[in-house]
Design goal:
metal ion binding; Dihydrofolate Reductase, subunit A; five-stranded mixed β-sheet; eight-stranded mixed β-sheet; EC 1.1.1.193; diaminohydroxyphosphoribosylaminopyrimidine deaminase activity; 2 domains; alpha/beta; Cytidine Deaminase, domain 2; 25% helix; elongated
Length: 324
């Protein structure tokens, strides 16, 4: 299953509206087929692995990071049916598919065909690979990561607005990798006008992984001449525009303090990614007034989810706490 999870990771940021799934087919102690969801969501991981395995799939075990789909689409057959037809003897599944068209039906169909089914193997890891897909299925909206590059005193720029560079090269490279995992990258009007960002992915081998870009602004009538305007970036009035687009699963927000504050007040952030530099600058704060009535209201909203050393900086991740 670890190998299947690694394969699934190859598709992250490229498979929407489908999740990124990995599949490994094993027979006689040897891997005979590998597959992962291809760009645009098809072919599915199981179809790719079965095609590679060929006749060797008969009597083999398939390890899949998400329950094989049970519904037939205009874009391809149901993976549950493909596994049955191939003569697979056992299917090991990580996470149950939250899509109501499958949601247990895929595993049930496979079991009804006399195939041994094992569920829940490294399920949490599989679900964590597809936060946007699970969010779409459960809440009807994308999963939002808010990225901030801050000094130790919580500032994102000097008082005159200069912010290049608060963090070092390793942290910036890490942020570009994070961009590559998203379907949409969003900035606000202030960031567009102050920095004119390109929002591309400048990592060797991942240059083609840049997500679609958008500017969130209620006051802009059209995108001004900028690097983003030349790339076909879209102008959005609010997050309702994003919620209406089912092809957007994971959103990466790189806006300034105004946009960060607006999204936090609206409770639209699911994950905080904070790059912390070991400097003090006494400049502009990264987050504005959140309208808290009492300090107690700030506690229990965020759960620490990991720290990565990016010397001299570090990346801190926090996940939204379950509803209280």
């Amino acid at each position: 299953m670890g190998a299947a999870l690694a394969l699934a990771a190859r598709g992250r940021g490229r498979t929407a509206p489908n999740p990124a799934v990995g599949c490994v087919i094993v027979k006689g102690g040897h891997v005979v087929g590998r597959g992962w969801t291809q760009p645009g969501g098809r072919p599915h991981a199981e179809a790719g692995a079965l095609a590679q395995a060929g006749d060797a799939a008969r009597g083999a075990t398939a390890y899949v990071t998400l329950e094989p789909c049970a519904h037939v689409s205009t874009r391809g057959p149901a993976c549950a049916d493909l596994l049955i037809a191939a003569g697979i003897a056992r299917v090991v599944i990580a996470a149950t598919d939250p899509d109501p068209r499958t949601a247990g039906a895929g595993a049930a169909r496979i079991a009804a065909a006399g195939i041994a089914v094992t569920n829940g193997v490294r399920a949490a890891e599989a679900a964590a690979q597809n936060p946007g897909f699970f969010s779409r299925m459960a809440r009807g909206r994308s999963f939002v990561t808010l990225k901030l590059a801050l000094s130790l005193d919580g500032c994102l720029a000097l008082n005159d607005g200069r912010s290049r560079w608060i963090t070092g090269a390793a942290a910036r490279a890490h942020a570009h990798r994070e961009r590559a995992l998203a379907d949409l990258i969003v900035v606000g009007r202030g960031t567009l006008e102050a920095d004119d960002p390109a929002l591309d992915v400048r990592l060797a081998g991942l240059e083609d992984r840049a997500p679609r870009a958008a500017v969130l602004s209620r006051s802009l009538g059209a995108l001004p001449s900028s690097k983003l305007a030349t790339t076909g970036a879209t102008l959005l009035r609010d997050f309702a525009d994003i919620d209406a687009d089912a092809s957007v699963l994971d959103v990466f927000v790189e806006g300034g303090a105004a946009l960060a504050t607006e999204l936090l007040v609206a409770d639209r952030v699911d994950r905080l990614l904070i790059y912390r530099a070991p400097i003090l600058i006494g400049g502009k704060p990264g987050i504005g007034d959140l309208g808290l009535a009492d300090l107690a209201d700030a506690h229990g909203r965020w759960l620490p989810a990991g720290v990565t050393d990016l010397a001299p900086d570090r990346a801190e991740v926090y996940l939204r706490a379950p509803a209280r």
